C-alpha cells in the first residue's frame, strides 16, 4: 500500500517489551505522519494496535480518496482476512459503514467481497456481524447492483461446502428478496427450500430462524405455496432445536392469512406444536401464545387454543407453566368473559399453590391483568381471594409482584378491599432479613401511598417510613430518603412540614453519626420539593448545630448540602438574602476547617454557588 | 498528579479497570503518600472495619452499599485485597484510588497476601497478566505499593488493629513503630508475624503455626499485650469465619471476615464492623452480592 510508512524498526523494537503505544490523537486526514501510524499499526504484532488502527480506517480512507479506497484499501482488507477473531469482528462492523468512503451507494458492491469471506468465518459472532453489515449495504444498493453482485454472493454462500457459509446465507435472503425480479425471486425461494432441507441441523436452524423475515416480504400466494410447506417441514423436524424456532415464523404467517386459511392450513401444525414432546418447544409456544392465538383469527380454533393454554398451565415443566402465565392478559380475550371466568378459576387456584416459586412469582405479576375481564364482582369473588393468598406467599418476590401491580386491581376493584391484608404484607416485607427485599418494598411505597391516600398512610405507613431512615444498611437509608421526597411530591409540602420534616430534623441530634448523616442526606434530597420558607425556618437552624459536629464526615456533608439549599433559598426574594447572611459565612468557616476533606467540599460548594 | 482520580474512581465503580499508565501514575502518587504514614497509624472512631476481601470486587461494592460510600463513611481495611477472587485488579485499583483521593477517610493495612511471592502463586499475578494483555507492569506497580502499606492502626489509642496477630518480638506497640517495613514480607521476624499469626484458644503463650509463618498465640498473650499497651481490644482478620466474625478471649479479640462465599464455594457469611465514637462495636453480617 503506497502510503508513507514510518520506519519498520519502530514496531519491531517496540513489540519486544511493552507494545508500542500509537498516538492517534491527531489523526486528521491532512496529517500524513498520523496516517502513516495508522497504516503501520495495521501490520503491528500487537493485536491491540491492529484493532485501534481498524477503528480509524475511515480517516485513512478519506485521505486516500474514494477511488484508491476502492481499488487499494478494500482489496488490502480482503487479504488480511486471516487474522484473530476480535479483528475480524471489528472489520465486519467497519465495512458495514464504509459505503461513504468508497464513493457512495453505487459502489457499495465492492464491499461485498471481503464481507462474503467474513460471512464464512469460523467464529459465529464474526459471521453474524458480516451478515448484519451486508444487510445494511443492501438497503442502499439499487436493483441492478443487487442482481449483479449480491445474488451470486448468496448463491455461493448457499452452496458452500462448510456449514458456516450456508448458515450465513440464510440471513441474506430476506433483504435481497425485495430488490430483484420475479424470476430471481423464484430462484431465491428455491435456494431457501434447499436450506430448509439441508442435512446439517445448524443450517435448518438458521433457515427456521430467518423464515420470519422472508415471510414478511413475499407475496400472498407464495406464503401458501412456499412458506407454509417449509414451515410444516421445519415444525416436524426431528431436532427440537429446529422446531422451537418455527414459532415466530408461525406468528408471521398467521398475520398474512385470513381466517379460513388459518384453520385449514395451519390448524394441525399449531396443535401439534402445542403438545410437542420437547418442553423447550412447548415453552416457545407458551411464551408466544397470545401472538399465535390472536392472529389465528378463527373463533373455533381460538377456542381450541384456549383449551390448549389451560393444558399448558398444567404442563410438567415449570418453565412452561411460568411462560403461559405471562400471557394471561391476552388469553383473557380469546373467549367470552363468562367462559374465561368459568374455565380459568380452577387452573388459577392450582397455580397459586404451584410448587415452583418462579411460577407463583410470574402468576403474581400477571394475575392483576385479569381483573378487567372478570369485572368488579367477578374479581371480588374469584380473584381477590387468590391475590390475598399470594400476598402471604413465603417467597418474597411473589408478594412484591402483587404489590407492584396493584394499580390494575385498584382500577377495577378499589384497593380498600385489599388494604386489610396489604398492610401486614408490607410490614413483613419491610422487615425481611434480606436487605434487597426491604429495598424493593420501599420503591413501591409512593405508589401505594398515592392510591390509599394520606389518611391511611399517616396511620399505618408513616412510622415504617421513618424507621427505614434508621436501617443498619446504608442503601436502605438512602432509598428511604428518596422515598420521603416522592411522598412529599404526592402529598404536598404542608403535609411534609407537619409530619415528616420534624422527624427528620430530630435525627440531627442522634448519637450515632451515620444517622446524623442521614438527616443531611434527607434534607438535601427533599430541598427541591419544599418551600424556601421551610428551608429558612426549619432546615437551616437544624444544620447550624451540625456545622460544628465533632465528626469531619458530618461537617463536609453539611458543606455539600449548602449547594442545593442555596438553590432553594434563591427561589424566593424573601429568603434569597440568607445566602449572603448565613450560607456564605458558614462555608467560609468550613473552608478553614482542620480536616482537608471539609475544606475541599466547602470550597467546592462556594465555587458552585458563586458561579451562578 | 497527571491522572484524573475522580474519573478513575467513577469508572472503577462500574467495574472498568484503569489503563496501564493510569495504574502507574496512581501507584506512584500513592507510594509518596504512604511513605509519610507511620507503621502504626493512629485514627479516631467512628470507623467501619473490613476484613479480607480477596479480589471479590462485587462483594466490595456490596460492602459500600451496606456500610455507606467512602468518603461519607470512614473505612479501615485490614488487608488481603487480592488473590483467590476473580477481580483482584478492580478491587485493589478502587481501594488505591480511594486512598489517594480521601486519605483521611480510608486506611489500608498490609495483609500477608500483599506480597510478591504470595501473589505469584494465588492468582493476582496471573490476573494482571491476563487483564493487561501479557504485561506484568501493573503487578510490579501494585506490589511496590504493598511494601508501603501501614502495618497496624490504633483507634483512639484503645483498639489495636492488624491483619494477622501478635508477635513474640513485639510486646509494646512502639517496637512495631521502629520496624523498617518498606520491603517484601520476610519469612520470619516481627513483620512476618504481624501479618501471619493466629489466635488459639487452646494454648498459652506462643506456639508453632501450621501456616509455616508467624505463630499461634493464646489468651494470656492477648491480655498481656493489651495491658502493657493500655488498650482494650484487638481487631484482626486473616482467618475465615463461617458466621462472618468471631469474638474471642472474653471479648478482647475479634476476627472480621469480609469475603462472603469465599472462593465462590465456602458458603460462609461475611461481616463488617462498625466502631462508634464511644468504641462500641457492632457487627453487620451480609451475604454475597447476587
Automatic annotation (TrEMBL), chain A:
* PROSITE patterns cross-referenced by the UniProt entry: HEAT_REPEAT (PS50077)
Task: Give the UniProt entry's GO cellular component terms.
Answer: cytosol; nucleus; protein phosphatase type 2A complex
Please give the organism: Coemansia thaxteri
Keyword tRNA-binding present in the record's keywords: the answer is no
Give residue ranges for domain Phosphatase 2A Regulatory Subunit A helical.
Answer: 388-552
Location of the Phosphatase PP2A regulatory subunit A/Splicing factor 3B subunit 1-like HEAT repeat domain: 304-375
GO molecular function terms here?
Answer: protein phosphatase regulator activity
Pfam families from the xrefs? PPP2R1A-like_HEAT, VPS15-like_hel
Which Gene3D superfamilies does the protein's record reference? Leucine-rich Repeat Variant
What the entry lists under InterPro entries is as follows: 2AA_helical (IPR055231), ARM-like (IPR011989), ARM-type_fold (IPR016024), HEAT_type_2 (IPR021133), PP2A/SF3B1-like_HEAT (IPR054573), PP2A_Regulatory_Subunit_A (IPR051023)
What are the top taxonomic ranks of the organism? Answer: Eukaryota, Fungi, Fungi incertae sedis, Zoopagomycota, Kickxellomycotina
Coiled coil feature spans: none
Protein known as: Protein phosphatase 2A structural subunit
The UniProt gene name for this protein comes to TPD3
Superkingdom, taxonomy of origin: Eukaryota
Tell me which UniProt keywords the record has, alphabetically.
Repeat
Q: Where are the HEAT repeats?
A: 111-149, 227-265, 344-382, 383-421, 422-460, 539-572, 583-612
Q: Which family does it belong to?
A: Belongs to the phosphatase 2A regulatory subunit A family.
Keyword Repeat among record annotations: yes
From TrEMBL, chain B:
Q: Does the keyword Hydrolase apply?
A: yes
The record's InterPro entries line, in alphabetical order, gives: Calcineurin-like_PHP (IPR004843), Metallo-depent_PP-like (IPR029052), PPA2-like (IPR047129), Ser/Thr-sp_prot-phosphatase (IPR006186)
Keywords from the named record: Hydrolase, Manganese, Metal-binding
Q: Which domain of life is it from?
A: Eukaryota
Coiled-coil parts of chain: none
What is this enzyme's EC?
A: 3.1.3.16
Q: Name one GO molecular function term.
A: protein serine/threonine phosphatase activity
Q: Which reaction does it catalyse?
A: O-phospho-L-threonyl-[protein] + H2O = L-threonyl-[protein] + phosphate
UniProt keyword Hydrolase present? yes
Q: Which ranges carry the Serine/threonine specific protein phosphatases domain?
A: 109-114
* PROSITE patterns tied to this protein: SER_THR_PHOSPHATASE
Q: What class of enzyme is it?
A: hydrolase
State the similarity comment.
Belongs to the PPP phosphatase family.
Q: What is this protein called?
A: Serine/threonine-protein phosphatase
Amino acid at each position: 500500500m503506497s502510503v508513507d510508512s514510518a520506519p519498520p524498526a519502530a514496531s519491531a523494537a517496540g513489540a519486544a517489551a511493552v507494545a508500542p503505544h500509537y498516538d492517534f490523537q491527531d489523526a486528521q486526514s491532512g496529517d500524513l505522519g498520523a496516517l502513516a501510524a495508522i497504516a503501520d499499526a495495521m501490520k503491528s504484532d500487537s493485536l491491540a494496535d491492529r484493532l485501534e488502527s481498524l477503528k480509524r480506517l475511515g480517516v485513512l480512507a478519506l485521505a486516500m480518496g474514494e477511488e484508491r479506497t476502492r481499488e487499494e484499501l478494500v482489496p488490502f482488507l480482503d487479504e488480511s482476512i486471516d487474522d484473530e477473531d476480535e479483528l475480524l469482528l471489528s472489520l465486519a462492523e467497519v465495512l458495514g459503514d464504509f459505503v461513504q468512503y468508497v464513493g457512495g451507494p453505487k459502489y457499495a458492491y465492492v464491499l461485498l467481497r471481503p464481507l462474503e469471506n467474513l460471512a464464512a468465518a469460523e467464529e459465529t459472532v464474526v459471521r453474524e456481524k458480516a451478515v448484519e453489515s451486508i444487510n445494511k449495504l443492501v438497503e442502499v444498493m439499487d436493483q441492478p447492483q443487487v442482481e449483479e453482485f449480491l445474488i451470486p454472493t448468496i448463491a455461493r454462500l448457499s452452496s458452500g461446502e462448510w456449514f458456516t457459509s450456508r448458515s450465513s446465507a440464510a440471513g441474506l435472503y430476506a433483504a435481497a428478496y425485495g430488490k430483484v425480479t420475479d424470476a430471481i425471486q423464484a430462484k431465491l425461494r428455491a435456494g431457501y427450500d434447499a436450506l430448509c432441507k439441508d442435512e446439517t441441523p445448524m443450517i435448518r436452524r438458521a433457515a427456521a430462524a430467518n423464515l420470519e423475515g422472508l415471510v414478511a416480504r413475499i407475496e400472498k400466494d407464495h406464503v401458501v405455496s412456499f412458506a407454509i410447506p417449509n414451515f410444516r417441514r421445519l415444525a416436524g423436524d426431528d431436532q427440537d432445536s429446529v422446531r422451537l424456532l418455527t414459532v415466530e415464523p408461525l406468528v408471521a404467517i398467521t398475520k398474512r392469512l385470513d381466517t379460513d386459511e388459518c384453520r385449514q392450513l395451519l390448524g394441525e401444525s399449531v396443535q401439534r406444536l402445542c403438545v410437542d414432546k420437547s418442553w423447550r418447544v412447548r415453552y416457545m409456544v407458551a411464551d408466544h401464545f397470545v401472538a399465535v392465538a390472536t392472529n389465528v383469527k378463527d373463533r373455533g380454533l381460538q377456542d381450541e387454543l384456549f383449551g390448549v393454554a389451560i393444558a399448558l398451565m398444567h404442563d410438567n415443566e415449570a418453565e412452561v407453566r411460568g411462560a403461559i402465565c405471562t400471557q394471561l392478559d391476552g388469553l383473557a380475550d380469546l373467549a367470552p368473559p363468562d367462559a374465561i371466568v368459568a374455565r380459568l378459576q380452577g387452573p388459577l387456584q392450582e397455580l397459586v399453590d404451584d410448587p415452583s416459586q418462579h411460577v407463583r412469582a410470574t402468576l403474581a405479576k400477571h394475575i392483576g391483568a385479569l381483573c378487567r375481564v372478570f369485572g368488579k364482582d367477578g374479581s371480588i369473588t374469584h380473584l381477590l381471594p387468590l391475590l390475598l393468598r399470594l400476598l402471604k406467599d413465603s417467597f418474597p418476590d411473589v408478594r412484591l409482584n402483587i404489590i407492584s401491580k396493584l394499580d390494575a386491581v385498584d382500577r377495577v376493584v378499589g384497593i380498600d378491599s385489599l388494604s386489610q391484608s396489604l398492610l401486614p404484607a408490607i410490614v413483613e416485607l419491610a422487615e425481611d432479613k434480606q436487605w434487597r427485599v426491604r429495598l424493593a418494598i420501599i420503591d413501591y411505597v409512593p405508589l401505594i401511598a398515592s392510591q390509599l391516600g394520606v389518611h391511611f398512610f399517616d396511620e399505618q405507613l408513616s412510622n415504617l417510613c421513618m424507621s427505614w431512615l434508621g436501617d443498619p444498611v446504608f442503601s436502605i437509608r438512602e432509598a428511604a430518603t428518596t422515598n420521603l421526597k416522592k411522598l412529599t411530591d404526592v402529598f404536598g409540602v404542608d403535609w411534609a412540614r407537619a409530619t415528616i420534616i420534624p422527624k427528620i430534623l430530630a435525627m440531627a441530634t442522634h448519637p450515632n453519626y451515620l444517622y446524623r448523616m442521614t438527616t443531611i442526606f434527607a434534607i438535601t434530597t427533599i430541598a427541591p420539593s419544599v418551600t424556601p420558607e421551610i428551608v429558612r425556618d426549619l432546615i437551616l437552624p437544624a444544620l447550624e448545630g451540625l456545622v460544628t459536629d465533632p465528626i469531619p464526615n458530618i461537617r463536609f456533608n453539611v458543606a455539600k448540602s449548602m449547594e442545593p439549599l442555596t438553590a432553594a433559598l434563591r427561589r424566593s426574594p424573601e429568603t434569597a438574602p440568607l445566602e449572603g447572611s448565613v450560607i456564605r459565612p458558614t462555608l467560609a468557616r468550613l473552608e478553614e476547617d482542620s480536616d482537608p476533606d471539609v475544606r475541599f467540599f466547602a470550597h467546592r460548594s462556594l465555587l458552585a454557588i458563586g458561579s451562578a | 498528579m497527571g491522572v484524573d482520580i475522580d474519573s478513575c474512581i467513577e469508572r472503577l465503580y462500574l467495574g472498568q479497570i484503569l489503563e496501564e499508565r493510569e495504574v502507574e501514575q496512581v501507584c506512584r502518587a500513592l507510594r509518596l503518600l504512604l511513605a509519610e504514614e507511620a507503621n502504626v497509624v493512629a485514627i479516631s472512631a467512628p470507623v467501619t472495619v473490613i476484613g479480607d476481601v480477596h479480589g471479590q470486587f462485587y462483594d466490595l461494592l456490596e460492602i459500600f452499599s451496606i456500610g455507606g460510600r467512602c468518603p461519607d463513611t470512614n473505612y479501615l481495611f485490614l488487608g488481603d485485597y487480592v488473590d483467590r477472587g476473580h477481580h483482584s485488579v478492580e478491587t485493589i485499583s478502587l481501594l488505591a484510588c480511594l486512598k489517594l483521593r480521601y486519605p483521611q477517610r480510608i486506611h489500608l493495612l498490609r495483609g500477608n497476601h500483599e506480597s510478591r511471592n504470595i501473589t505469584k502463586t494465588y492468582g493476582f499475578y496471573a490476573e494482571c497478566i491476563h487483564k493487561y494483555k501479557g504485561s506484568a507492569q501493573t503487578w510490579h506497580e501494585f506490589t511496590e505499593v504493598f511494601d508501603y502499606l501501614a502495618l497496624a492502626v490504633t483507634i483512639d489509642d484503645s483498639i489495636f488493629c492488624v491483619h494477622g496477630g501478635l508477635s513474640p518480638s513485639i510486646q509494646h506497640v512502639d517496637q512495631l513503630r521502629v520496624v523498617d517495613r518498606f520491603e517484601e514480607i520476610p519469612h520470619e521476624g516481627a513483620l512476618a508475624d504481624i501479618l501471619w499469626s493466629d489466635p488459639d484458644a487452646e494454648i498459652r503463650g506462643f506456639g508453632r503455626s501450621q501456616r509455616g509463618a508467624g505463630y499461634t498465640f493464646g489468651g494470656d498473650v492477648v491480655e498481656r499485650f493489651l495491658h502493657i499497651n493500655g488498650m482494650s481490644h484487638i481487631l484482626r482478620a486473616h482467618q475465615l469465619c463461617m458466621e462472618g466474625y468471631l469474638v474471642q478471649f472474653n471479648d478482647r479479640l475479634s476476627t472480621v471476615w469480609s469475603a462472603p462465599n469465599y472462593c465462590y464455594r465456602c458458603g460462609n457469611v461475611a461481616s463488617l464492623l462498625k466502631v462508634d465514637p464511644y468504641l462500641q462495636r457492632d457487627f453487620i453480617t451480609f451475604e454475597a452480592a447476587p
